[in-house]
Design a protein that fits this description.
The chain is mainly alpha-helical. Helix content is about 75%, strand content about 0%. The longest helix is centred in the middle third of the chain and has 31 residues. The protein is elongated and about 55 Å long.
């Protein structure tokens, strides 16, 4: 399947990657983007782990059994949902990143 790509887009991809072949330049850019996003997500995950002194799986288990202090507070519920979302996004991106090895 042929894909139309503007000259300016190809130039940007070439400048970013050093590749003149569109598919290779796009793959390099996607791989770099995924790696960058994973780094940011892992940094955010570490913040939650430090704040609560545990990994998300342990937090979730305690959450399910009602053993988290102030569990029904807005702050803790918000942290739970955001933390869970980060874990899900990390897992998804790690799966996608295997395509670019």
């Amino acid at each position: 399947m042929a894909i139309g790509v503007s000259k300016s887009t190809l130039k940007v991809l070439t400048d970013l990657t050093g590749e003149i072949v569109f598919e290779r330049a796009l793959n390099i850019t996607l791989k770099d983007s995924i790696e960058h996003r994973l780094e940011k997500i892992k940094k955010n995950l570490n913040t939650y782990q430090k704040n609560y002194g545990m990994k998300f799986d342990d937090f979730k288990m305690l959450w399910s059994s009602g053993k988290i202090k102030n569990q029904s507070s807005y702050e803790v519920e918000k942290d739970f949902l955001e933390w869970e979302g980060l874990v899900m996004r990390k897992d998804k991106l790690e799966g996608i990143s295997k395509w670019f090895i």
